[in-house]
């Protein structure tokens, strides 16, 4: 997992000054927060909490922050460090850091937040163990194996990092921590309570968007999404039929394929105010949200018609996801152009279906299993030949890698899972092995990367930063963001639109707005790029596009134009 | 100016650890109205969350792994016997042995049922066997070694929020209110928003714990200021054996906030190995397997460390190391909470040692109580858990004291129809004292947090594990100086009522000075070394002259009066009369 926001942070030495800026606010007296900066000398393996103690005990400055234990038991010292949710006693200090109260909570004073809503929520869910059968007396007849996943959730210290990082948390969804509290019981074979129903009907579990931020920030290292959320979802089958919208997003692949045939009409509808009102009514998609435009010529048709690439060289299969294919073919074109310029033989995973992520997000495991089986059948022979399968959209790649082996427990699924790579992983790995040798002809000054949620949680942004380093940019840095707020289709949905924008405004959008005009904004996730586009005047590009522009020269043609020209 | 919010309750519980929580829960289940005043958050502050181990004295297994022949009176009796033997040494024979018999019987016959029936998961192997230390089987763990107290307190918190108990959190009791010779309630400050309460109660249970943040390095949590001793003492209760201050030898040396992370010398889960200590030359100087039958390895660690320090091969603030490299990975990775911390700073405990330093830890002494009822020497005041002087901690012991106190409180409430009145002028005086601390003058004064740090530094420098008459006199002089010069000059940058932790620090600093002045006097008085209490100038454990309780009370003049009281030894008697401190195994 990528911890530092800078590519090559120098290790801090004992005695070095830490520049600590703290957001201070007393709601009973101040009209708005003030930022104060202190200098704190570094001590061995210094944690964030110690820097705060220093401000009070050595500098004699009043500062309100909470902690009791210092060793990850009380869960009270959660704080935003440079825009990221962290636990003060657990996280190392950074040479320059800005501390703010955990995002999404009312502030009592300075870094102290009001947790009362969480505690009330947990009481509403039923926070006590409910024995299924009469207690047989100590020691009861259970095994470590039976309790393993429940025990993982018993490590929850209610630190609120996950609730703060959750883009779906709000009036509709209590957020991850209350779900972890339920999962302790749901996953415990001794418990008889209907935890799935509590999660869904009281907790609003259906509004979880599967962005994995909870897992990423959890200092107790609980796989919150995999064990708690998925565990509860399995126990909380939705009542009745799925909504129209849910079917629409789950079926985005076919929708897109059909829409692209009538691209002009569909794009007109997406832009028309009247149509947007109708779409909002029928599909509950917020009318303030710009819909992506269909490309006139889908990527796979462009690919088939292009001047073919090298006939020799290492073979690579490009997994052309739904979004690249129908909405942003320029990303696929840049990837193809880059790989071919570097001497790779590129082919597409012809006949592939949607990776299944949208179905999983909407809770339709059955449908996801069908497409997963199809794709495994298609990709297994390729993987068996040792040909790398490279995808551009992180969530597609990581669904294949992480979810397929669980959906279909076959050797082939595991084989395919082991062979898919994100585009950045592939390029970084090839460069490291000395096989990718293009040198920069048009390096950008600076690249700021916003990591996609699944990317950050499962593989970290290291490979992306490494790959972007090949552009010859003077500086490649990661914006310390949480979720961009879109979380797949979530940001389109009426009831989530405001929360989605709020999440983006925590760090991402201000950082993008503050970037120099010459700075490239990189984002591998399609919805992340959409969020940046709708919230700022800037256009974020996929790393493939940035690499293509600086290594091959000239930017890839825009999809619509390329479509027309070919 | 009075803005005192009046509250009435049958039982007032001060403290939100396991003793207070169980006392409040039981009293509430018995139909009494209960109010809890918790300085931190119920179940999240104080020392109960740190309880790493649960004493579970199963019969040892023989070499083939088969259970041994049972004692004639059965397994449970054997467990009780082993628990008692442990507690006698755990308290260096200063514990109340009648109490220990009851607490041991309860902890081995009811404690585990009580927590497990409510869903606490006692760590098991994949075949279902409870994970214990091998081969002696003396400990069990909830979820993981190091997590037991955390998960039990999480459950207690949720249990209590499901009752009608009134819980005032982030609220600190500032003084016990008396009427004649009787405790009738308390005043308390909610520092989140500056509310000040006057609470009338038929019975007050003091349960403020004992692992206090009194020295630069301490296992105590932020809220631990020994205020419980001060509250009880000023209300007329007696305080006993508080010189018996424990330290830990094997808490991590860095990062500073992890000083509360204990690398247990205790038997470890699922292995026959135990931790070892190495000096700065790389030589091992302690292995708790050298004394596998000894139930108090933390005390023995310190004795061995003292010798290394004397020889210049380690110091109290570092230069010695815990070693786990001989311990099976499964035990480290799967069963022990601490491993992940080492990993976080790139130390692989399976391959490397981790530097340690000493910390100020628990206290054997505390408020003197009747071990059968938890009554203090003042009417209306009970004390339960580690603030009381019965035993040194232990989750089960403290829970037992909590339920015992609840029973006594029930009887008292049943016998008293009328709720006593608070003395309005005393409440007003206390309100004036507390709000008088909210001051921004003098500008060149110290922030209360800075004064606390000076107090802690004085303790670290002069009242550390190794002390002498001279060092203690220096500590005393520094405490007197802080009382005379620093406390009156404490100031804040803001007098806001909104989560003003400087305010809490100011109240704490005053109590810390009082508590420590008392503790230094107790320590100067005891002219021997015993258990965790080590005087370099009296390196002898003297059971002939000093196997005595040291009891203090406040005279009318306000001064401390110390006296010696005999110790009853009905069940366990130490073998030696007078012996070198280093030759004694407790």
How would you describe this structure in keywords?
heterodimer; A: 566 residues; alpha/beta; Ubiquitin-like (UB roll); Fumarate Reductase Iron-sulfur Protein, Chain B, domain 2; five-stranded mixed beta sheet; four-stranded parallel beta sheet; 28 helices; 14 strands; globular; disordered C terminus; B: 586 residues; alpha+beta; Flavocytochrome C3, Chain A, domain 1; seven-stranded mixed beta sheet; five-stranded antiparallel beta sheet; 33% helix
Structure description:
The complex is a heterodimer of chains A (566) and B (586). Chain A is an alpha/beta fold. Among the domains of chain A are: 17-113, Ubiquitin-like (UB roll), CATH 3.10.20; 116-132 and 145-235, Alpha-helical ferredoxin (Fumarate Reductase Iron-sulfur Protein, Chain B, domain 2); 446-565. Chain A contains 28 helices and 14 strands. In chain A, a hairpin with a 2-residue loop joins strand 3 and strand 4. Chain A starts with 16 loop residues before the first strand and ends with a helix. In chain B, 33% of the residues lie in helices and 19% in strands. Chain B has a domain at 246-362: Flavocytochrome C3, Chain A, domain 1 (Alpha-Beta Complex). In chain B, strands 1, 2, 5, 6, 7, 8 and 16 form a 7-stranded mixed sheet that branches. A 5-stranded antiparallel sheet of chain B has the order 10-14-13-11-12. In chain B, strands 15-9-20-21 form a 4-stranded antiparallel sheet, with helices on one face. In chain B, 60% of the residues are buried. Chain B has helices at residues 18-29, 74-90, 97-117, 148-161, 227-234, 297-310, 329-335, 339-344, 395-415, 424-436, 448-462, 469-486, 501-525, and strands at residues 4-14, 34-37, 54-55, 139-140, 166-168, 171-179, 182-190, 195-206, 239-240, 245-252, 276-278, 284-287, 320-323, 354-363, 366-367, 381-383, 466-467, 534-535, 540-542, 548-554, 560-566, 578-580. In chain B, helix 2 (74-90) packs across helix 3, helix 3 packs across helix 9 (395-415) and helix 11 (448-462) runs parallel beside helix 13 (501-525). The termini of chain B are far apart. Chain B has 586 residues and is of the alpha+beta class. The chains are: A alpha/beta (566), B alpha+beta (586). At the A-B interface, helix 1, helix 2 and helix 3 of A face helix 3, helix 4, helix 8 and helix 11 of B.
